[in-house]
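Hey, I was hoping to borrow your eyes for a little while. No rush at all, and the record is pasted right below.
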Amino acid sequence: MADWNPDQYLKFADERTQPSIDLTSRIRLQKKPHKILDIGCGPGNSTHVLAQQFPHACIIGIDSSENMIQVAKSTSIDLDADLDFMICDAATGLPSLETNYDIVFSNAAIQWIPRHDELLRNMMGRLKPGGVMAVQTPLLEKHPLHRIIRSVANQEKYKGTFSRNIQRRNNLSPQEYATILSDIAERFDIWETTYYHIMPSHRDIIEWFRSTRLRPYLAALSPDRVPEFEADLLDAFTRNMPVLENGKILMPFPRLFFTAVR
């Protein structure tokens, strides 16, 4: 699959950044943090939120995408903050990182990584005693648009096009996360928030997902079939998502949050 496209991802920068702001506001530490790890930092928008909230901390952003890291570095040059970014695949690379972080943060990244029991233990292992792990992940199983995407992909004409791995569910249920956290954390909080985004059109919904959930689907299609698949998605979105009086679309987006103290 091709590398991530930061420009496409940042078309909805404000909407994508708001969960980072909300998650950061829930982090509670007895002392000011000195070191923060931002896992799946993308183009740096979440890292910048952390820098605003914790201006005296050294913050390391990691991501598996070279394109994302390049943009994160370029957009951070003029900031008065101690930021560094490096390529690291959190699925395999976390054990090689230091274990003296005050905060381990991850916004909308762990859904791309398998084996969350192992992942959360590795994330918690990067913390000092008393440090905080803070995570947000989309609730894909509860997202109505993800169900629509799957229903289109499962149409007969696309039979054999998409592998089962594309629709593989990495995320766990809130109960399963709570079970893991109760074993590895001194204490934790877990909650759910549904954001309602006002989208200009049904086509903009495709633009939103083009940089995230649609990536593996589009990568599996030959270039000549991409327009057909997107047209089928547009038709399904139009039929299932009513237009408001002002001509715009209300797009719900449920997300799961948790913070945990080592």
User: Anything to note?
Assistant: The chain has eleven helices and seven strands. The two ends are 36 Å apart (CA to CA). The CA atoms of residues 110 and 234 lie 28 Å apart. The first helix runs from residue 6 to 9.
